[in-house]
Amino acid sequence: MKIGEVRAKTPDELKALLLDLRKEQFNLRFQRATGQLEAVSRIRQVRRDIARVKTVMNERRRAEAASAGRHG
Q1: Would you say residue 71 has pLDDT above 80?
Q2: CB-CB contact of 18 with 54 (8 Å)
């Protein structure tokens, strides 16, 4: 997933995406532990996608706080 795709999502979509990615991460970890994981590189992709989503969420939160501080 590219950063542009993440930035285009609404806050609710970001929360849902983050939840889905965390579930996938858990499942991948479980598969790796039981020796059933074939696509080992997917673990890294999911981890980085989670980081992208969290980064965008934090950027938006900081932007809201900054704008509230200026106008408040």
Answers
A1: no
A2: yes
